[in-house]
Amino acid sequence: MRLSRYFLPVLKETPSEAQIVSHRYMLRAGMIKQASAGIYSWLPLGFKVLRKIENIVHEEQARAGHIAIQMPTMQSADLWRESGRYDAYGQEMLRMKDRHDRDMLFTPTAEELVTDIFRSHVGSYKDLPLTLYQIQWKFRDEIRPRFGVMRGREFYMKDGYNFDLTKEDALHAYNRHLVSYLRTYERMGLQAIPMRADSGPIGGDNTHEFLVLADTGESEVFYDAQITDLTFGSREIDYDSHAECQAVLEEFTSRYARTDETHDEALFNEVPEERRRTARGIEVGQIFYFGTKYSEAMGATVADSDGNRVPVHMGSHGIGVSRLVGAIIEASHDDKGIIWPEGVTPFHCGIVNLKQGDEEADGACEALYASLTALGLEPLYDDRNERAGAKFAGMDLIGLPWRITVGPRGLKNGVVELTSRRTGTSEELPPEQAIERIAQIYGRAAV
Amino acid sequence: MRLSRYFLPVLKETPSEAQIVSHRYMLRAGMIKQASAGIYSWLPLGFKVLRKIENIVHEEQARAGHIAIQMPTMQSADLWRESGRYDAYGQEMLRMKDRHDRDMLFTPTAEELVTDIFRSHVGSYKDLPLTLYQIQWKFRDEIRPRFGVMRGREFYMKDGYNFDLTKEDALHAYNRHLVSYLRTYERMGLQAIPMRADSGPIGGDNTHEFLVLADTGESEVFYDAQITDLTFGSREIDYDSHAECQAVLEEFTSRYARTDETHDEALFNEVPEERRRTARGIEVGQIFYFGTKYSEAMGATVADSDGNRVPVHMGSHGIGVSRLVGAIIEASHDDKGIIWPEGVTPFHCGIVNLKQGDEEADGACEALYASLTALGLEPLYDDRNERAGAKFAGMDLIGLPWRITVGPRGLKNGVVELTSRRTGTSEELPPEQAIERIAQIYGRAAV
């Protein structure tokens, strides 16, 4: 993309309403614009990141064998009366009447609707296990929305639902989600720690939240320092193997890690003192096993191998897709702006032309642009007639992990400059080597 | 995908509520399930098609230089009061109050919000031309929703908005959209004819609807038969060239083609009688130029080169993404089921194992599955223990354009059967040649 043809409305001033860094940078970098309280429009740069995160979630869900569907945002109140949650949900549920005076709502979650889909179409244990998920806009009418997309009212969320014959199978689905979420977050450059959590209005005993450590987190967290040494890495997991998934769960949840909601001081004190940590965390996902709560209430049964109808065991599992955009920024920024992890960066690298209009500089930039594009990469080329300082400041603010700087002086020596946003270190090298390096970083075969 | 691990709830009976073929087949093929009146859940097969269509739209919008954003579904009533449409819109607009008693609505279209984004961030003619678009769920509270996703209440739509300094530039944006839509529909295997239309509540003089001819179309259409001979084909268009886009517009709109709303009997009679056609059509898109209607009402101005503030010229342009799923089926089916065009098929080909459990047949199917997957293609492998007739009927119903049938008898002679869903013709050939043919059809390099 050429910046002269893009829509990147960067702000010079920090908007006064933004209290946390992700909100400030998302507004300043032209990623979002508030439409009304807690409701945002995603401008081009923000939408690109949102879509990258969405795609990673889809890919990792597919890898785990989960199947994508899409449920509507508007639901009839009827199903929610069947489960008993229509009255229980309170004012966070946005309710309305349609033109025929029927009670409708903007779905905050979809246990009822997916259970209805299941009971309408699945009748035998032979069709299990089954996990359906969607990525869809949700609405929760927060009384005091704040922190930008971190606690908005309309938000984009992955919500998945497993249906299993037995508790054991459903707990495997739970573990499978835990494994898949670890992979998902790591691909986004995040360390998200599973912590024992409180089940809230979804119900159920087994639940973990995934928390990203950040000073601005809304939860106080308590954990054993050993836990931050764990990484999922590139290990290959057979998602069908109960044992392999169970082993990952044990590895990542056996050490103490809890939020203030479930914190147990006595247990925490059993952790050696030098490893006890208190910090703040941002919740970016949660998994639940809640057994037959909804299947019994709504008659979602299957015939088992003896022909008896039994209610299925279920769980639900969420990833806050739009919230992750904020969480990643909270975890990865400096005082100049955002620092995108390579996995979610809106553009793979920036190209800064130090002397727009100079024939040689323009030509070198165009050649870099063409070569990177041919590799299937998306560069953002700042081709505006601006001074270098403004171009650098803009690139630092929007946080592309790599920048290639092209100027007449370097070109005389046959080199351009490759700069890492994270470390700030620069290196002069011939353009074709810069391309090779970028290709390598993103795992593309050089052409 | 292996069918044994998929969720494809095919119905044997035709649901009685479905009056048109696309609705019937979408229900029977397990693509959608009604959640409430005019509101559908997209089951896995339906969601895959929806997503393919969405991706084609994104790709073609990017090619035309249009920039993707995402606006919220819930909007405050305030902006709509500013444009004067809040009261004008009537009962089709779904309205509600949030917990703080503020008037909200589920957006049926987004001229107001996008104009607000524009006026907040753009101030100079130098930032023009600019076209922003989104693909987002919309809601129109149809009094009598019917025909499945063709006239639902919650629907998925691409809506794009151009901002230009002059009428001439805005008309170029109009033409550019027309060109881009022609390409978009053709990639989906559709012939969509631009017809002069009525502007309705959006306002404006210049507007064309794109109609797909189909017996079940809601509009009566009148056209010169020559128009159906036109194809956009693989021509390369410079979307920046006013002349090139204008030429396409003239080519595709100079012959008589109108819906009943704008039909002019006298003009129609000037078409030679043997070329006069009356038919029915499904609207799958519409483009508008409406000038300064919203920019004046909402103060969306830029400084021109003399420093004077002038209201921008705008247009809006829509593609009915979820409706297209139905329209494609209306245009492409037979009495056995759907026939997907290659561009939007949910899976690239089916693999039918005639003797599940037979070592050789299973092995050959697995090898085909692995080879096709390695090419980046998605086969659907019917690995269930079902009789051949049921497998064929299922494949015919869901409409994958190509099927590879594998059985012990063929394998003895070293062949499998490759069948075209559209023509019904089959050919016996060695497995590796079948793969090569499929790869060729989808433009993949053989491995």
TrEMBL record, chains A, B:
Catalytic activity field: tRNA(Pro) + L-proline + ATP = L-prolyl-tRNA(Pro) + AMP + diphosphate
- Asked if the record carries the keyword DNA repair, the reply is no
Using the record's annotation, list all stretches that form the Aminoacyl-transfer RNA synthetases class-II family profile domain: 33-341
Major subcellular location class: cytoplasm
- What are the recorded Gene Ontology BP terms? prolyl-tRNA aminoacylation
- Stated EC number for the protein is 6.1.1.15
Q: Where in the cell is it found?
A: Cytoplasm
For this record, an example GO cellular component is:
cytosol
Q: Name one GO molecular function term.
A: proline-tRNA ligase activity
Q: Which Pfam families match?
A: HGTP_anticodon (PF03129), tRNA-synt_2b (PF00587)
Q: Which domain of life is it from?
A: Bacteria
Q: Which UniProt keywords apply?
A: Aminoacyl-tRNA synthetase, ATP-binding, Cytoplasm, Ligase, Nucleotide-binding, Protein biosynthesis
Keyword hit for Aminoacyl-tRNA synthetase? yes
Under HAMAP family, the record lists: Pro_tRNA_synth_type2 (MF_01570)
Q: What does this protein do?
A: Catalyzes the attachment of proline to tRNA(Pro) in a two-step reaction: proline is first activated by ATP to form Pro-AMP and then transferred to the acceptor end of tRNA(Pro).
**Can you tell me which family this protein belongs to?**
Belongs to the class-II aminoacyl-tRNA synthetase family. ProS type 2 subfamily.
Subunit comment = Homodimer.
What is the official name of this protein in its record?
A: Proline--tRNA ligase
Q: Which organism is it from?
A: Primorskyibacter flagellatus
